[in-house]
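Q: Joint fold for the lines below.
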Amino acid sequence: MQTPPLSSSLRPLGLGLVLAAGLGATTAQGGDLRYAEDQAPAIVNPLFATSMSEARIDELVFEGLYTDDKDLATTPDLALSSEVSADRSEMTIHLRPGVTWHDGTAFSSKDVVFTIQAMKDGGTLSTEKGRVDWIDSAIAVDDLTVRLRFVRPEARPEDKLFFKILPAHLFDGTAIKRTDPFRNTPVGTGPFLLDHFNDDGSISLSSYPQHRVPAGTAQLTMREVSDKNYQSKLLLYESLEALVRVIPRDIAVLQNNRKVELYPYQTNSWWYLGFNLKRHPFDDARVRTALAELVDVDALLDPIGTGETLTGPFVKSSPFYNHDVQPFGVNASDAASLLQQAGYTKDGDLWKKGGKPLTVSVRAHKNLESAQEVVINLQSQLQSQGVTVNVDFLDEAGWRSSVWKDHDYDVVLSQWSFDRNEDIREQFHSKGSRNFTGYANPEVDRLLDLARDTLDPQEKKDALRQVHALVHTDAPMIFLWTLDSYSAMSTKVRNVVIHPFYFFTWVTDWTMQ
Amino acid sequence: MSRLGARLGQAVLLAVLLCWLLSLVSGYDVIADVTPARAGLHPSAQALLGTDHMGRSVAWRLVTASRAFVGPGLLAMAVALALGLPAGALAGYLGGPVAGVVRYLWAVVSAVPRFVLVLLACSIYGSEPHVLAVAAGLSFAPGLGEALTTRIEALRSREFVLATRAHGVSAARTLAWHLLWLACRALILRQLLYLLAFYLVLETSLSYVGGFGIEEPQPSWGNMLAFEFGIHGGNPAAWAAPALAIWLTVAAAIGVASTLRERGHA
Amino acid sequence: MWTALRAALTRALWFAATLVGAAFLVQLLLWAAPGDPIDLLPNGAELRPALEAEWGLDQPLPMRLGIYLVHALHGDLGTSLAVHPGVAVRSLLGPALARSAKTLVLALLLSLALSLVLALLTRGRRPVLRALVQLLTVAPVFLLAYLLVLGLNEATWSLVQAGTIARPSWFALPDQASSLRDGLAILVLAVGSGSLGETHAALELELVAVLRSPFATAARARGQPLLGLTLHNLLPPLLAVAGRRVPFLLGGLVIVEKVLLMNGAGALLWQACLKRDYPVAMGLCIAAALAVAGSRLVVDLARLGLDPRLRQVRA
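A: Joint structure:
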C-alpha cells in the first residue's frame, strides 16, 4: 500500500504533542456500530425524507407493510398475509400480531389507515404524496385487518406498499407538519429506536428489545462527516465501523487494508447527459446523435471508477434492459456527416453554423462526486473534435432554480436513482413530473401507459424494452453508465448484507464483536 | 522587517506579476491539457512539477492560476478604493457631520465580519469570482476609509496644509495631491496589499471548504488545492505547489506592506 | 461624572444604531438579489403564501426592515427553512452560539497572551523573530487546521499500532468532541491567517510607545520597576487591539468549525448559506454584528473607565 508521502513526513511533527496527550484512557469498543453520513438527516420522519441519509435512518427506525427479502423479492413485514380480490381492485391485508411501537403502544390497523390518510392529506406538505395516489381508500376492518381499495386494477399492489407506517397516537390529526413534536422523539416499529440527537450532531440508536427479530448489534451511531477526505481515514483509524459509499479514489487504499472489507452493491442508478430539447440546436435529433457519437463514454468512466456503460434508461441487470440495442460508439465520421446535414460546416478547428461556433454549456451538480472529472474530460474530448464546451457547477439551490425551474441549460450531467420499481415514467412521459428535458414521443407515452396499466409482466417487459430502444434512438439523453458502488465495513462487523437502495434493510443480521 | 526580508517579499510579488504576464501571452490551453493516461506523474524533466490526477501540467496551471487572483484581486482593490477613498478622504478633510455619517457607514459595514459578509454574498448572488471580488472590496472599504480619515484628520491642521491653502491652492487639489498622493499613498498601498493577501486567503478557503470561487477547468491556487487534497498515491507536488505559492504570496504581500508602514509612519 | 455618563450614553446609542444599520445591510443584500428569494428555497413553491405574508414581500424595503426588527425585538427571528425546516431560528442559534462563544473567547485570550509575551520579547528589536512569527502565522486557517489534524492523527496511529501507547479517547481527530479538538481550534484560530502576526505587531507598537514615553523614562530614572507600569499603561491599547480582533476571529471561526467538524455557529452559517436558509443566515449575521459592535462597546466603556484622559471634555 502506498502511504501518501506527505503524511509520513508529518509524523515527527505531531509526536511531541501526542506523547503528552496520548495518556488518555482507551475507548471501549464493541457493540456500537458507528457509520458516517455526508449530511446528517434534517428530520427523522419518512414523510419528509428528501435525502438518502434520511431514507437510511428511516429504514432503521420505521417499517412498512412489505419489504425486500435478500433476493430482492417482496416479502411481508408488518403485514402477515394478504388477499387481492378477483378484479384486482381491492386488497385485504392481515397485519402481524404482537408488534409494538417503541413507546410500548400496540401497533394496529388504525396506524396503517392513519398513515395513508396523512399521505393523502393536502395539509401534509410531503414529498411522499405520490406514493399513495393509486389507493382510493383505506379502512380498518378490525384491529389487525386493513382493506384497501384501488383507483384502477393493480397487478402487484404489494410492491407499492413499502412506505413506512407512522404511529397514529402521536399525532393530532392527519395534516402532519415538520414542526410537529414528533420530530424530537420519533417513534417507529423498526429494529432500532432513536435514543437521542446529540449536541455534536450525531444520532444514537439502540436496538429495540421487543422487536420480533433481535438485532445483532446493541447500538448504532450516525456521525456526520461532511468532509469526504476524512471519511475513509476515520474508518482506517477504527473511529468508524461503516461507510455507506466509498468514493472511487479511496477504494484502492481500503482494498489493501486487512481490517476493512469492501462490499460491492449495485444501485438502480445511472448517469446521463441530458439535453434541453427546448433549446436550439438540441431540438435537432441529428445534432444530439452527432454529439453522442463524438463522446467516448468508456474514456469518461475510466478515471472515476468501474461500472457498466449503458445504452438506455435501465441498469444492465434489469429485466427491462434491451440488450439488442447497440451503443453509438465513437464514430467521428458519422457524426461529421450528421452535423453537416444539420447545417454545420467545419471552419478550421470548429464546427460553425452561420458563422457561430457550436457551443454546448454543460451544467453539473457540485455534490455529485466525480462530476468535475467527468465534465473536464468531456470538455476536452469535445474540444478536440471542434465543439466548444462551457462548464458550470451548481450548488443545490442553483440546480433547483436553473435546471428544474428555469430550464436554463444546454446539457446537464446528472444521475437518476430508482427503487426496485424502476419506474421511469416520470422522466420520459411527456407529462412526467421529472421530465425537465422536454422529451415527448407519443409512442413512448403509449408504451409507458401500457406498462403502468398492464397486469401481464411479460407485456410490461416488452413495452419497456421497446421504450429503451426508442429512447436510445431519439437520444434526449446520452446514457452513460451505472457505477459500481462499494460500502466499506470494519472486519469487526460480520454477516453483512446490504440493500442496494436502503442500505440497512437487513441490519438485524449484522453482528459486531 | 529587515531589508533582506523586504527584498525577498518584493521578489515574490514580482514573480507573481511575471507569472501573470506569462499566462497572458502563453498559449496554454487548460482544456486540451486533459490526459487521464498521464495522471499523477511525479516531477520530471518533461513535467517540471508533475501532473495532477487528470493528467494536467501542474507547473502551467500554477502559472495560469495567477490570472485567477490577480484579476479579481485588482477588481477588489478597485472596489475598495472606489468605496473607501473618496468617502474616507472627505470625512477626514471636512470633519463635522460628514465625518460622522461616513464613520457610521464604516461602523455598520465593518460590524459584519468580512468572511461572513463574503459568504453571505456568495450564497445570495452566486459564487463567481466577480461576486467574491466585489464583496471582498466592500468588506475592506471601512478599513481603508477609517485609516485614511484618521490620517487626514491628523494632517489637516498641520502647517504645510495651511500654507498650501494660503497659497491659493484649491481644497480639492490640496486633498487630492498634497494629502492623498504625497502623504497617504504608502498607507493606501499598504491597505491594498493587505486586501490582496486577504483575497487570496479568502479564495483558497472558499474553494477548499465550500467549493466556491473560480471553477474548473480554470485553475486557481485555491481550486488546485481543493482538487488534489485527499488523492492517495498521486503527485504531492500537485497539492504542495499551490499551497506553497499561497503561503509565499500572502507572506510577501503582508511583509512588503509592513515595510511601507515603517516608512510611512509619521 | 456627567461627561463620563454622557460619553457612555453616546457609545451605547452608537452601538444600537450600528446594529440597526447592520440588520439593514444584511436585509438589503438579501432583497437586492436577482430573482425571488422564495424561488431559491428547496420547497419555495409550497411555502410561498406563508412566506410572502410573513416577510412582507410586497412592502417597500424600510417596512420590511421594520417588520423584521419588531419581530427580532420580541425574540422572533423566524423559522428555519432548509437546515432544520420548521424549527425556530432562535432555538437553533442559542446552543450553537454558546458553543462557539467559548472557542472565540478562549482564542482571543490566547492570541492576546501570546502576542503580549512575544511583544515583550521582541520589544522593537529582534527583527528575525518578528519575521519568523509573521511567516509562520500567515498560513490560512484551514490549511493550518488540516495539517495539524493530519500530523497528529498519523503520529498517534503509528504509536498505537506499534503498541507504544494506548488508543487515546480523543482519537481520531476531528471526529469526536474532545478537549484536544477544542484546544486545536483555539490554537489555530488564535494563530492562523496572520492573526498572531497582526496582534503582535500592533501590541509591539504600543509597547514601544509606552516604553519611550516620558513617564516611563522618569520611572527608569527613579529606579522603579517598569513591568507593572508598562502593563498598566498597556491595558487600554490592549483592549483596543482585542476589540479590533473580534471580527477577524469570527471570520476564522467559520472556517475552523467547518474543517474541524465542530457543531457551532460557524458550521451552522455554512449550512445556512449553502442551503439558502435565509432566516438562519440573517440571524447569524446579526448575531455576529452584535458580537462585533458589542465588543467595541465593551472596549470603549472599559477604556473610558480606565483612561482618565478620555473622560475629559473635548476641545
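Q: Anything notable?
A: Chain C has a mean pLDDT of 83. Chain C touches chain A through 50 residues (CB under 8 Å).
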